[in-house]
Design a protein that fits this description.
Layout lengths: L4 E2 L4 E4 L3 H4 L4 H32 L3 H27 L13 H30 L9 H28 L2 H29 L3 H29 L6 H12 L6 E10 L2 E9 L6 H18 L3 E9 L15 H11 L9 E7 L2 E9 L6 H17 L3 E9 L1
Parallel strand pairs: 4-5, 7-8
Antiparallel strand pairs: 1-2, 2-5, 3-4, 6-7
Length: 400
């Protein structure tokens, strides 16, 4: 799967992995999602026509109501189709992380609708108990149509759930449970009709209450999961611990802190601050960060983007940040304190450690043979360290 790349001076993140590119491509995943949604819509159109038609012919008010329920499901299918189209769009300037949250929002709406459906089933139970004359009229035709509806919805549930697993789509999984709730609703209708036919009208109420509680529970779980994603809740603790352990096992990583994770649709995003040897080069630190990124993307299927920040030390506990000297500041101090060394100075390096700095001065090897100059430089460096407490140490390196 192709993904975006992002670079920074000290932090960098890529989300491209050759291993994952061999899987189903993003456009194909979007097609699978849309196909599952269209199949669901077609089945609901068919069920609406059959239930309402045979409900009228079979004189079953419950079957007619169930047909209207299937008609309302078409609105949910339209919501899923729209969300899939919006969510599958590529990242742009306004949405640099993509549009997957549209699917999350739709999932929350679907979960809410399940809660409402469950509440509606429960409400119908109390109405039937208070008005026994409204119980479904026994009719074999209505019973048969209801059984067909249950089979259709159960097949649709398994079909949509299978596509949801392939595409890792939480929205499709939510819609699958929505479709199964329709099967539960039809079961209530069938039990109600069958129970009246057998002389046990209260069995309808017992079954309806059980189904209502189950549907509400499924809906609440979907809403809670969606809201957690919208507020950037971290990945499960066990998975975060595995990610932490994986990073520590990578050569060159000495420690890790500020590990942050979240979901964006079905994709997992990771931010990590790794600690490396403070005296390695910037390019080597960057390469270690690349290895961290590549390993996480290759090892964990859901991980699609990793942002790695390379640190020379653990600065997480430093509550008071000291404004340290910049390279320009150090250059000014060297010009001021070491003017006699400047003609020989080829380069200098700065290390920021423990809220102080270490300076490495690089000069030709010939300077080591000028004893008077060296003595003067050593004396001046001590003076510099005394006057500028931020400068912890100054090293002099002779280059051949």
């Amino acid at each position: 799967m192709s993904k975006n790349h992002s670079h920074g001076k000290h932090a960098h993140g890529h989300s491209h992995s050759p291993a994952k590119d061999t899987e189903i491509l993003a456009p194909d995943l979007s097609k699978l999602k849309r196909r599952a949604s269209y199949v669901g819509a077609c089945v609901n159109v068919l069920q609406t026509l059959i239930k309402i038609t045979f409900g009228i012919l079979g004189q079953s008010a419950a079957l007619i109501a169930d047909g209207i329920h299937s008609l309302s499901d078409l609105m949910s299918d339209a919501l899923v189709i729209t969300a899939v189209r919006l969510g599958s769009r590529e990242a742009d300037a306004e949405h640099p992380y993509g549009h997957r949250r549209f699917e999350t929002i739709a999932g929350v709406i679907l979960g809410s609708s399940l809660v409402i459906i469950g509440g509606g089933i429960g409400w119908s139970v109390f109405e039937r108990l208070s008005n026994p004359e409204n119980l479904p009229v026994p009719n074999e035709l209505s019973l048969a149509i209801t059984a067909v509806s249950i089979l259709l919805n159960e097949w649709l549930y398994h079909y949509t759930k299978r596509i949801a697993k392939i595409t890792r789509s939480k929205l499709l999984l939510a819609n699958a449970w929505h479709q199964r709730s329709d099967a539960f609703s039809s079961i209530v209708v069938m039990i109600g009709i069958g129970a009246v036919m057998l002389g046990y009208p209260l069995a309808d109420a017992v079954a309806a209450i059980f189904v209502a509680i189950l549907v509400i529970k499924i809906g609440l779980n979907l809403v809670i999961d969606g809201v957690k994603e919208l507020v950037d809740t971290a990945l499960p603790e066990t998975l975060v611990a595995e990610i932490h352990h994986t990073i520590l096992d990578i050569d060159g990583v000495e420690d890790i802190h500020l590990l942050r994770t979240r979901y964006m649709g079905e994709d997992a995003l990771i931010d990590a601050h790794i600690i490396v040897d403070p005296r390695i080069s910037v390019s080597e630190g960057h390469r270690i960060g690349d290895r961290v990124r590549d390993e996480l993307i290759q090892r964990f299927d859901d991980v699609m983007e990793v942002l790695v920040h390379v640190d020379p030390e653990n600065d997480e506990a430093l509550f008071e940040r000291v404004k340290l000297l910049t390279r320009a500041d150090v250059q000014t101090l060297l010009t001021q304190y070491l003017p006699n060394l400047l003609p020989y100075l080829e380069d200098f390096r700065i290390h920021y450690l423990n809220q102080q700095i270490e300076v490495e001065l690089i000069v030709p090897f010939s300077v080591s043979e000028q004893m008077d100059l060296l003595q003067n430089i050593n004396a001046t460096i001590k003076h510099l360290q005394h006057d500028v407490p931020q400068i912890k140490t100054v090293f002099l390196f002779f280059k051949k």
